[in-house]
Amino acid sequence: GAGVSQTPSNKVTEKGKYVELRCDPISGHTALYWYRQSLGQGPEFLIYFQGTGAADDSGLPNDRFFAVRPEGSVSTLKIQRTERGDSAVYLCASSPGGTASGNTIYFGEGSWLTVV
Amino acid sequence: KQEVTQIPAALSVPEGENLVLNCSFTDSAIYNLQWFRQDPGKGLTSLLLIQSSQREQTSGRLNASLDKSSGRSTLYIAASQPGDSATYLCAVSKSSYKLIFGSGTRLLVRP
């Protein structure tokens, strides 16, 4: 009974480098979400996938951020030319369907990104 | 724009006390409201979900209420225990998938 798995759990990278964060959702969950959480704040929505397609990417802060989910399961969040302001915990979550109908959403433990 | 506010930001209580955490939101047009728990360095765990048509939900020592018209929710924790120490976050859903979170209340229950 695996939950949502995220790798790496911690990543330290230099400013300007490229980073990939991976999310393995609960098997069978069609909905997948990425959120970003800064210290002392609640998570902020980044992007939502229903199946393979990004149904809403309005939360991505700029075009340095991109996410894919090519086979409708594993997702990768990609950050180009990282900046110190990108330092945060990146949380992935999945659910059987959308949350409005009451489906429980399950979060992973996050990938802590530090840009130095 | 929907904004979610949680008061207090931090709370320290002795073991055994009953306590109330508050959450307010500016736009009452929501699908539902959820309360989550987050332990240090961990992800979020969903505690209670209240649909917009409901007034409250209960799970064990936890009771969450929702007053959509006034934009308020409370999480009541009965007979608090040290194991309840964590950050509690509320989130509203204005669409079928997007959650808008408050900043959380950091709870410490002292033995």
Q: How much of the polypeptide of chain A forms β-strand, as a percent range?
A: over 45%
The percentage helix of chain A is: under 10%
Largest interface: A-B, 29 and 26 residues
The unreliable regions of chain B are: none
Order of helices and strands of chain A: EEEEEEEEEEE
Largest beta-sheet details of chain A: 7 strands, mixed
Largest pleated sheet of chain B: 6 strands, mixed
> For the CA atoms, what is the radius of gyration of chain B?
13 Å
Please characterize this protein's 3D structure.
The complex is a heterodimer of chains A (116) and B (111). Chain A has 116 residues and is mostly beta strands. Chain A is built from no helices and 11 strands. Chain A is globular, with a radius of gyration of 13 Å. The relative contact order of chain A is 0.32. Chain B is mostly beta strands and 111 residues long. In chain B, strands 2, 4, 5, 9, 10 and 11 form a 6-stranded mixed β-sheet that branches. Chain B has a 5-stranded antiparallel β-sheet with strand order 1-3-8-7-6, with no helix packed on it. Chain B has strands at 4-7, 10-14, 19-25, 32-38, 44-51, 56-59, 62-67, 72-77, 86-93, 99-101, 105-110. Helices cover 0% and strands 58% of the residues of chain B. Chain B has no helices and 11 strands. In chain B, strand 7 (62-67) and strand 8 form a beta hairpin. The interface between A and B is medium-sized, with 29 and 26 residues.
